[in-house]
Amino acid sequence: MFAKMxxxxxxxxxxxxxxxxxxxxxxxxxxxxxxxxxxxxxxxEVIKNPELLLSPLVEKQLDKALAALLQHTPxxxxxGEAWFYRMKLTVNEHVLIPRPETEELVQLVLDQAKINNxxxxxxxxxxxxxxxxxxxxxxxxxxxxxxIDVSMDALKIARQNASAQRxxxxxxxxxxxxxxxxxxxxxxxxxxxxxxxxxxxxxxxLDINVTAFEPHQALFVPDNLPLLFYEKxxxxxxxxxxxxxxxxxxTHEDFAxxxxxxxxxxxxxxxxxxxxxxxxxxxxxxxx
Length: 288
Prior knowledge:
By secondary structure, the chain is of the alpha/beta class. It is 41% helix and 19% strand.
């Protein structure tokens, strides 16, 4: 498709084709990202050297990327990378693509830790790509961080990311819904989680690039058990959260109040936090 085309024509063709399924702004962002990642070329270089010719290998890679994008494959999976908290992480179909709102959860943990100014132990439940655990560890070098997931494929990616970011994290294969496996876990000062929380009946409301490609195990819960993981976390914390510790959770915006009410049965202080868009997306709980 791109044979003998200049970089300027490559770029324009790529952008035009993406606009058949994306807005101009989205298509531009994706095109810039793909060209920088695969060709090592930024947009200003396309403008500066419009007649530049690409190698056959790069042309083939761009062709392949465009075809996948036009099938609604998320650009992060196409490139095998995603940005989170100023880190470039490896991702594939076995892990969720890290979201910007989850960065707010990380910031909440870090802000609280700065207030307490102590070395703490942290557990990340359902670590996926490892994004939460790694971001926290990179910004709290003295913290002891443990991260668990039921998926061995996800843990493989998380370990790769932790190694690339030079962070020492203890990754464990744990089916958190199986309470018999909790005995292998210690007590922690901080428990953090972005668990599955989308009821299956909301699947049709999501974009195809989410439902067709991202791991359903990390996204969905049964319609009749929307708080399934939060109920487990609440019970787990009763025996595995240190007296002065705190639980931090990302939640479904429609279930934040229900989640808070659930934790209020067991914990003295339960707070709902809003994200930058004013949505109730986080809940914290503590005994104190």
